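Troubleshooting: if your tokenizer reports a length mismatch, compare against these two reference records.
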Amino acid sequence: MERDRVAALLTCFNRKAKTLACLEALYNQKLLANKVSIEVYLVDDGSNDGTTEAVSQAFPQVHIRRGTGNLFWNGGMRQAFTEAIKQDYDFYLWLNDDTLLYPHALTNLLDTHQSLTAQGHPRPLISGSTQDADTGELTYGGVIRRSLLRPIKFDLLEPGDEAKPCDTINGNCVLIPRSVVEVVGNLDPAFTHYAGDWDYGLRARKQGCTVWISPGYVGTCSRNYVPGVKRPPRVKASEGLKKIAQPKGLPFEDETLHPLNEWKVFAQRYAGPFPLWIVYWLIPYRRLVWLSVTGLFRQSKTQT
């Protein structure tokens, strides 16, 4: 019996302990060896904490490529994807290096794919939901549009006992079959860190694929930033406008502000026709712009 070949794709930067723990959990998956084989492609984006050396020693079978330090999530995953696609795997598994998979996570994802295919759902792309290790709360997985009036505002979809359709996905743990890659291809280089995963899921749906979350949770992964729970340190509006241009954007009040040009690309694609997309593109930045304008006004009043 021929085995399904799975390529696991990861990118990392200076998180040696987390990367090693993630890989250990991946290699400890409860799979029948005669049914599934896993090969790992890791892009280390310029770590200086010994990640590459530690991974090479602990898991010499991992295919490691070194980045320049400027790839970030989307760039690193895109490079890993590029290498893996050359070998034409049956499945590709996106995996964040801070995600710890439960022992049956990959079996869950593969069984979900088999079930959805048998039910006639075309080209199913499947996200696995993760939860906080301490609280058990949902952290990443599939997302759905908040409403028709908020076309590029997404909310997490709670997993249940069965697979659920969703609009697009977080990239923390995603199973992508060859049939999806054949029509969607790789991650888009228009994005550096954020939004590339959302874009991939939305492009997949446009190409006639279906997007799902698998039943239950596949592992743990803490949220990097929790909007509305712990506000980031207050920054001057002028400094904030500069930080928006950086790949990771700016955590601001109750959300993360994406780089302006990259969010513009996303809005153009998915927020509706011109000029509607311009409104949705600029909405997230309105409060920062207002603070900048009022700050300049106060400064001029003080000077006079």
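Reference record two:
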Amino acid sequence: MSRPAFDYRYSIIPGGAVTDPNVSMRDLQVLALLGRHTDKKGWCWRSQVEMAAELRCGRATISRSIKRLVDAGWLEQEALPRGRTVHVKGQQPFSAFKYRVKIDREDECDAPSAGDVPNNGHPRDVPENGQEVPIADGHGVPIQTGTHRRTPFKDPLNSLAPADAVENAMVASLREGEVARWPEFRSVVDKSWPGGFPPKDEVACRKQFDPLARERGADLLMACAQLHGDEERRIAEARTRGAGKAMLKRPSNWLREGEWQGYIPQAEALAAQLAEMATALGRVRRSLGDGIFRLFRERMGDAGLAALAGVTIEPKAHFLYTRPVQRTLMERHSGAIERHLGEPPTFTLVAERKAS
């Protein structure tokens, strides 16, 4: 049997969450997923889009579970900057977060009580000299001082190496093909950044791009580069005449200094919007059929077509819709629909039809 791409050995989560009535099975699954990636202080940075793909659910489901976990006290979240702007609650349409799994809460302390701690400072069931721990039948478990138990085999997927190190090695090996996408990244910078890509910076930039592409993927780097270029262009256009030419950072320095990471929240949000758009377009295509779908797409574009989610068609060009705006969109193209289907279309509001 083949081994999965990632074989995480453990997940660090608070035991009390398992029996918390306010935590659903999906919430517990999200908490365990975050627990696979926490650092020594419990913090981790995970994309909700990636988490939704891993758990095979919608991004909104992940967002709701995170909110319930935060409200229940098992999780903390902290907003990350958006581009060059520090996140301000209530003033930004979206933001990325880092999360911390809370092992202990203020109302749940695992410290031993005074009755459990003898005068020598050790708990009563732990011997001072490390010889044995007595149990009910009089037998004990020997404790070998100065040793550390390890697994008897040397499988890297089951070793005691930090989970992050194993994961990063696997991700790097799986993303070797991302390095070959360097020409795409260079083209994005050349087209979107003011002044284009400086030829003298190509070698230095390639050295920064290769490891980052293996670690985070070329698509993310290209999305961040596009957003940075758009922002720099807006700044250049807003600059007053005669103020002089601004000194633009070289792409190699932009990657090396980590400035690209400030655009991750925007890139992730755009990716989520595109995913939602693709889902809506898929529904419209299944309900209308390929012919009408292509006709509407040529005339409305993807944004207008996605607004038709929920519209269905019956024989003889009879369209059923759920919102008035959908009828307005279709009526604008009723002539093209008639030419395509060979008969004039009729429109019926689903709620009115059910009421009748």
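Descriptive notes for reference record two:
- The first helix runs from residue 25 to 35.
- Strands lie at 43-44, 75-79, 97-101, 132-134, 140-142, 312-314, 318-321, 346-349.
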